[in-house]
Amino acid sequence: ADTGFRHVEPEKYAPRLFHFCGTRRSIEVKQIPCCRSRMDSGDVYIFDLGLKLYQWNGSGSNKDERHKAMQYMNALRDDRAGKAKHEVLEEESVYPEHEFYKKLTEDDEDESDEVMEAGDKTKELFRLSDA
């Protein structure tokens, strides 16, 4: 029976895999396909499953990548009102049957490295002044 109350659906999240790489002040964060073959031991990854977050630290990752990933994971958790649970995984201590690996796909998705171009190719010159 329908009621006069508003029905609120739980928010749905698409799985995302974030790649953290770089050194010191230039840590780069990219979203990559959720594919196990894209991961390497030298970097840190965050696997976002909605209300479950995993930080996977590769054996060759540095402290700056780990710190940036932890900050990013805390921001994701805050965006979800603290309802998301998180887990930090070290590469050496994670067994292959872990849920983290089960949720990743084995086949590599074709990444299109096409360059996006602007539709309007006219060049414009602007002057900025404080006067």
| Strand neighbour order, sheet with most strands | 2-1-3-4-5
What about the largest sheet?
A: 5 strands, mixed
By secondary-structure content and strand pairing, the structural class works out as alpha+beta
Radius of gyration: 20 Å
SSE pattern, N- to C-terminal: EEEEHEH
Mean pLDDT: 84
Helix content: 10-25%
Strand content: 15-25%
Quickly count the helices. Answer: 2
Distance between the termini: 66 Å
Low-confidence stretches: none
Q: How would the global form be characterised?
A: extended
The number of E-state strands comes to 5
Briefly say what this structure is.
With 131 residues, the protein is of the alpha+beta class.
Characterise the protein shown here.
- The protein has 131 residues and is α+β, with helices and mostly antiparallel strands.
- Helices cover 17% and strands 24% of the residues.
- It has two helices and five strands, in the order ββββαβα.
- Strands 2-1-3-4-5 form a five-stranded mixed β-sheet, with helices on one face.
- The longest helix has 17 residues, at 63-79.
- It is extended.
- The model has no long low-confidence stretch (mean pLDDT 84).
